Amino acid sequence: MVVIKEREPLRLLVVDDSAYNRRSIAETVAASPEVKVVGKAADGEEALRLVSLLKPDVITLDLEMPRMDGFTFLRILMSKRPTPVVVVSSYSQKENVFKALELGALDFVAKPDRYADAELASVRDELVQKVLLARTLRNRNLTRRRAFESLSGVESERGREQAPTAPPRNLVAIASSTGGPSALMEIFTALPPRLCDALLVAQHIPEKFTRTFA
Questions:
Q1: Spatial separation of the C-alpha atoms in residues 107 and 80, rounded to whole Å
Q2: Does the residue 25 lie in any domain?
Q3: How many domains, the chain?
Q4: Mean pLDDT over residues 103-128, rounded?
Q5: Domain range for residue 186?
Q6: Does residue 119 share a domain with residue 79?
Q7: Counting beta carbons within 10 angstroms of the beta carbon of residue 29, is it exposed (0 to 12), middle (13 to 18) or buried (19 or more)?
Q8: What confidence tier does 45 reach under pLDDT thresholds 50, 70, 90?
Q9: What is this structure's pTM?
């Protein structure tokens, strides 16, 4: 008889300065048997202590908090104990969301105005999906990598040989959803200045964040 061992649930730390939001996020994610909320923190300082103590697999993070904000927390976290982070932010913080992605956050979820409104079901599904993405990143270095450095060397040489107005030789299509914003930022940062291929990107993203991301 083959015994199939069940996977351990992901250990989640919820970081938000609002007690209501901490409780709502924890209850929302706890609906999934694959996630276990192991702690809650009201600011970055408390979150760093809990990260050291609890060693969570993934963190949900608010950005505007007293004492230590989400950006400072991200910088320290990624330098000391890189951990997947999903930012939970309102539409009004959309510029800050992409700053957080640059600092190493995995993805983000748009915070609803009220956790009891009609959007709750879709937000819950999206949040759980993005939290579970952390499972695939457990054994990966989460600090920024130049994954395309070898490509850049070749492509930059080829780009210098062509005039700026030369038509593209190839079309590269990228379709992405969960984890896509941070992955795209990583890819585009590593591309050579004169890439002679055309790029087409389809990114699943909340409508109000598209202009800022572009």
A1: 20
A2: yes
A3: 2
A4: 74
A5: 154-213
A6: yes
A7: buried
A8: very high
A9: 0.72
